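[Amino acid chain]
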Amino acid sequence: MCKKRKIITITVLFVLGVAVSYLQWGREIDVVGSMGTSSENFHEEHVTFTLNRLIITDKEKCAEEIIKKCRENDFASTLFSYDVAKPNALYGTVYRSRFSMKGQKPLFHFRYTQTADTLGSYNIVDDPEAFTLVIE
């Protein structure tokens, strides 16, 4: 009887470990919504992201990963149209998951912008060194 209980306990712990592992590392960051605004020589994107992770320890590292995916246009559900205009600024609202969006509780907001004197001169795809990241 005791041997059966150990096998069941080990099996349950293994399944639980696989489930938690999938929830933390098995899903990709995704775009839920985006809105672009443009003027004559300036284009900015306001994007809502879901991380699809349980735990986020470093918001800055997470924002940098999101920006990298935006620069590479590497999202499963959304492709940005960089052939028309490349963004000169990126504003992001980041949620843990779609479920947390319903509760209106973002993890953080960030902005990836140029300095004021170079406004519109650079874009996030070709000139990432001209941008600064601010997490709110």
Observations:
- The chain is about 30% helix and 25% strand.
- The chain has a mean pLDDT of 86.
- The helical segments are 2-25, 59-72, 98-102.
